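Researcher: I'm comparing several assemblies side by side, and this is the next one on my list. It has 676 residues spread over two chains. Same procedure as the others: predict the full complex and return the structure.
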Amino acid sequence: MKKLVSLACVALMLFSLAAAGGCGKAEDVIKLGWMGSLTGDQAAYGTCESQTLKLLVDEKNAAGGILGKQIQLICYDTKGDAQEAINVAKRLCAQDKVCAIIGPNASGQCIAIQSVLDEYHISDMSTVATNEKVTVQDGVLKEYNFRVCFLDPEQGRIAGSFVYDYLKYTKAAILYDVNDDYGQGLKDNFIKVFEAKGGTIVAEEGYNGGDTDFTSQLTKIKEANPEIIFTPIFYQDFINIHKQARTLGIEVPMLGGDGCASEVLFDAADAVDGSYVINHVSLTDPAGEDFRAKYAGKYNGAKMELNGYMAYDAFLIWCAAVEHAGSDDAEAIAKAYTEVEVEGMTGKIKISPENHNPVGKSGCVERIDGVNKTYIFETKIPTE
Amino acid sequence: MGIGYYLQQLVNGICLGGMYALMSVGYSLVYSIMNFSNFAHGGVIMVGAYVGYYALTALGCPFLIAFLLCGVGSGLLAIVIERLVYNPLRKRHAPSLYFIISAMGASIFLENFVIASIDGTPRNYPAVFANSISIGGLSLGIDSLLMIIVSAAALLILMFIIQKTKIGLAIRACSYNERASTLMGVNGDLVIFTVFLMGGILAGFAGILYGMRFIVKPTIGQVTNKSFVAAVFGGLGSLPGAILGSLLLGIMEIFVASWNSTLRDLFVYALLILVLVVKPSGLMGKVTEDKA
């Protein structure tokens, strides 16, 4: 009798296992995870990323999916919080068993989820995390962290070649916050490139974060008579410096990094008119017109943010990696990331195996049109 | 670097100093009567800057109206603070340390009140006077010019009130000896009311001028730290001292910054310590007691 019961049990177990296996086959999909801020300060960024991915996944599925399978996109909110990002990463890896993750947009969250990725051997492709430590920390490469955006120091190099090669200016002044790593990195790389090309830094002035009066430094800069002022700072100081420079009679344009690109600039539209900002992509680049129209059509005329472009490129390279690997195995995809090359929204993307950063990406420079309160696409500059 | 360069820096220094002067007079006025440093003054200036911002943007007022509204708003706020915070302490004859701590509390309260009720995002004034005039190679922003004119006019009116009117006489009497003056029939409450009202109005003017030139955010009250240094440097309690100290501090700060911009704050606070150690009464101060 006992034997019979155990036999029956075994039979039952076998049956349920087969049934479960059958179920698995029935929903044979490739699972892609996304995480980012859907609430909090950066909600606008995350919302745009997830909506872009939904749009792209729907399109891809309608066209037959990938490797003959449909893609299932799973999105979670990190609330802009590093701790929450870890929880979300665990859920994606352990519970949903995704084959790869796209996002989050902030460096702090990307750095936080590293241990989870390492534990589950699942890769993450970050969108706009520009801090160096996202992929390499203390000289050690993070095996499962990747990104599609360029790094902070590269902007300095872009600035250098924009001023010298594109604008053909040879005399530049610099005004930056001496206490800020971001600005320091941009400044050093700008000087390196600009001087190597033959340009001269006629004035290099600093200030302490929190200062509001820049007249002293600007008067010195005016005396040095530069053709442009490089300002690797954030948008609020960018506005103040412009206002004070204009009242001091300084009419030359200024050039800021991605920290300056903001709609807030148009509060001081007259003062900032004619200056330039570097960005990852032009929000008015004609090449992105189709994409913007499609997005606006699907989401009630919503405006495309920078993050949408970055999510677009992250998705493209993920598709390429899956096809290259020929499977949805997480390890194989992580390996394939450094072997594929795609033509993305923000230029050609090839991830370096040494540091998991994209190689030779272009930066885009936009001119501020204060009259119409908009950015005008100026040019693309490669980082090397 | 030609003479034009140094003149331009001098002009920059006077503009900066003019703004410090508008702020530091408020400190000195209160100090001269009540013998404590009213650190809530920075909060009053900040609220003035917000009043100006909303008057210009949400209400769409012309500049002059917005300017006057700032004076009224900050003046009222200063009186409210006096009534709610300092008056009860005064009635109990609390030591001046209590006043200082309450003032700091009021200042932090105002800052956080604005963060909670509006938000912490910096705001930019609409361009009211964005142009500049050029005299012999010197560039002077209309806003800077306005700042100097307004500072000078407001301070002259203040000096007139203090030197030539009856309430001014009462203020001067109280600043020598409050208890003796009140025994002689001076209305001490009225004097204090007037002092806070005048200090508040000037704070409102300083607020809108500061906001116009720089930015509005809840923490701008902290810039008054430097005007406080200017007041100590000139001699706390002395109005001409506060003005002289402010102008000198502004000019020195600009020249230090033009030499090495990272040293500017180091210089300002080193000067504060030096003055307190070597000559606590400042350039034109009257007493050498505690300067808190």
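Model: For your comparison table: Chain B touches chain A through 35 residues (CB under 8 Å).
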